[in-house]
Write a structure and sequence with these properties.
Elements lengths: L8 E4 L9 H8 L5 E8 L4 H12 L12 E8 L45 H10 L4 H13 L4 H14 L25 H4 L2 H26 L1
Parallel strand pairs: 1-3, 2-3
Length: about 230
């Protein structure tokens, strides 16, 4: 149970199949409250780290409620991690990828080189965090680290890295028809999650294009502000 003055409070977690812990659900339903405030976020390594984040979010709320309101609080967490080797901002890194050539890119096609200087691979702390977060995938994490260190300039390497990342997420084969994804969008907008099913090289190019546009807009705003 969190050690802060905000309460009553209940953690809510999910197992690998997306099912709620029955004891936590029972305690949540037993809270004698008129209003329930829920905060959903990744655990960032541990339940303790998550609760520290929840505390900062919930701390000011009791002073904002009106008379007769008995608020309750719930923290909805799922496994996640932060990347301690990523400096904030990282100025000067564009991450640009070239536009797709005619023919869509063969297996031996060269693509963008390193987006950062050198080829450091995975930081040891990040590697261990990934191994802990994804039990049974030590070899997968090791291969991803090797690819990041080598930075092979081929479409095949990008595709392999995407396949390995999806192995960590245990992405099911197929799309919505073969997986239990929630239909939370209108029918004409609903589709398989791009991160799990889109061609990795095409997906990286889309992200790179957005990043380049955002950096360009930010630079323009900074110039106008000066």
């Amino acid at each position: 149970m969190p050690r802060w003055d905000v309460g009553p409070y209940q953690d809510i977690g999910f197992d690998r199949d997306g099912d709620v812990d029955p004891e936590q659900r029972h305690r949540l339903l037993g809270l004698e409250v008129t209003d329930l405030v829920m905060f959903a976020h990744g655990r960032n390594h541990s339940p303790v780290a998550a609760r520290e984040m929840y505390e900062g979010f919930f701390a000011a709320l009791p002073e904002l409620v009106g008379r007769g309101v008995r608020p309750g609080f719930a923290g909805v967490g799922w496994p996640s991690m932060t990347f301690p080797d990523e400096p904030p901002g990282r100025p000067g890194v564009s991450g640009r990828l070239p536009g797709p050539p005619a023919g869509g890119g063969a297996a031996g096609e060269k693509v963008a080189g390193p987006v950062t200087a050198g080829g450091e691979g995975l930081d040891p702390t990040v590697r261990q965090s990934l191994v802990s977060l994804f039990p049974g995938h030590r070899e997968t994490v090791a291969r991803m680290g090797a690819l990041l260190a080598e930075r092979p300039e081929s479409a095949a390497a990008v595709t392999e890295f995407g396949r390995l990342a999806r192995r960590l997420a245990e992405a099911p084969a197929g799309g919505l028809e073969s997986a239990c994804f929630t239909d939370d969008l209108p029918g004409d907008e609903q589709g398989p999650p791009a991160l799990l099913f889109e061609d990795p090289l095409s997906l990286c190019r889309r992200f790179a294009g957005v990043l380049e546009r955002v950096e360009s807009e930010a630079a323009g705003a900074g110039f106008r502000g000066a």
